[in-house]
Amino acid sequence: MIDETKLQGFLQKAFGEMGAAMSAALVVIGDKLGLYKAMAAAGGPISSAELAARTGTMERYVREWLAAQAAGGYVAYDSATGRYTLPPEHALCLADDTSPTFLPGGFQVIAAVMKDEPKIADAFRTGRGVGWHEHDPGLFEGTERFFRGNYKAHLVNEWLPALEGMVARLDRGAHVADVGCGHGASTILMAQAFPKSRFVGFDYHEPSISWARKAASRAGVGDRVTFEVASSSRFPGTGYDLVAFFDCLHDMGDPAGVAKHVRTTLAPDGTWMVVEPMAGDSVEDNLTPVGRMFYAASTMVCTPASLAQEVGLALGAQAGEARLREVIMAGGFTRVRRVAETPFNMVLEARP
Fold first, then answer.
1. Is residue 112 part of a domain?
2. Hey, CA dihedral for 246, 248, 252, 256, is it positive or negative?
3. 5 Cβ neighbours under 8 A, 6+ residues apart
4. pTM of the predicted model as reported, rounded to 2 decimal places
5. Mean pLDDT by 10 residues, the chain (352 residues)
6. Which among 268, 284, 341, 273 has a CA at the least distance from the CA of 318?
7. By three-state DSSP, how is residue 11 classified?
8. Is residue 8 packed enough to be buried (19+ CB in 10 Å), middle (13-18) or exposed (0-12)?
9. Domain of residue 343, CATH code
10. What is the extent of the structural domain holding 312?
11. Which H or E run includes 83?
């Protein structure tokens, strides 16, 4: 027997999901065309004609976009005046790319993985992996934009100070490797905070390394940051005071092998900082809004990336601390402790 109440409840939920999915494209458009920034700069109610004039866009498109944004609760609508307002709290998330809560990069990621759906569906059938480099380029930029605010809010002020004695070493001048650095946001933030230290970012994805080099030059830290193309299991150098992995260990095909390599590159008293998505140790621990997002990203990006590499352990983005600890200690580390966390990340300190 079909429970009609449950059926209608699920249909309502699914229709809400469809609206949210369609709206993801509208967020990308609003970000790309400067619609959110123009609304924030208006400092109050604005009409579709005024917003179109400020952004050099067509009023009829803007009018429909605004109505959709109001229906989704992204902007407020005043029926008496026919004008729309971007609340300041929403502006922090949609218009201020320096904010730790800036979201459009995440919507870029959603747009990119939707484009890649045929590849992932085919991988379901064949069991093969899909490498990071095989994805739509919007994934690379969106990931950097989405993660940068979180790193800016926590990396220098909370995560590095939580590592035993690390800030003092960085202040004196340390040798640091940032592995899986992507576009280099984390590397550059550390270099800006610790001018006496030297940083090298490694990533196997050559276009990302090229982007990172330009970003370092624009940030004025090119004198103490270098970026090189290298894999996580073969990156060069020894005597590192700190090796950092930001949201990438679970993407590795052979994370235990990577851990062994990291161990050989550290100074005798060096530290491996592993930043991973927040997760409990069981599926039921992660049946939350954050877990839902991370499981979805893991299905579309992280697990396929691991399966495209040697070993293909496929930890997934919700591996949990216990599983991560096993992998790290399999690489020869004897001390692993969680030193910091946010609603979205856990930070592990691994010592030889």
1. yes
2. positive
3. none
4. 0.92
5. 93 93 95 98 97 98 98 97 97 94 96 96 97 96 95 96 98 98 98 98 97 97 96 96 98 97 97 98 96 96 97 96 97 96 96 93
6. 284
7. helix
8. exposed
9. 3.40.50.150
10. 107-351
11. strand 83-85
